[in-house]
Structures are given as C-alpha cells and as structure tokens.
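hey so i finally got around to running the thing on that chain from the lab meeting. sorry it took forever, my laptop kept dying and i had to restart like 3 times. anyway pasting the input first so we r on the same page abt which one it is
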Amino acid sequence: MNPNVRTTNKSNGVRLISDTTAVTGNFSVVESLDAATKFHTLAGNQSNVANTTSGSAYAFPVGTSIEGNFTEIKLHAGAVLAYLK
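ok and heres what got predicted. didnt touch it at all, straight out
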C-alpha cells in the first residue's frame, strides 16, 4: 500500500482555515497550505500535534496531511484545508 495515497472520501466538502479563530466540525483530513502552519489546538484522536504556545509549536510544511478524527482546529499561524467527514 502506498502511504501517499489517501482513502479518505473528500467529496463531503472542505473548509479553508486561515486565521486564528477556533473552528469546530467533523473533519477527517487537515492539509497544510503554508510553510508557517502551526496548530494551537487540533482536537481529536491525535496527540502531540498542537501546542498552546506558538514558539514551541511545530511548523508543518506545505502539503503535509494529517488524517484522523478532528472536532476543533485552531491555528497560531498559516492556513489549512480541513476536509469534512
């Protein structure tokens, strides 16, 4: 199986998040659109991906996709596409 091939159904829609306002929903994939993307909150079944302190939050490269079950996304910086379940 190719790890770069997603099996997620993306036909349910997508939401662009490009500010620091918390966004709630039911998301299956979060994809970074900006080299400076840092997560304040990424609530769901992932751990150690987000940090409430911008200086210690990991910067996700453009094109990085995180798959899981997400219910809240809040950024420190950058932009992401959040695919709806």
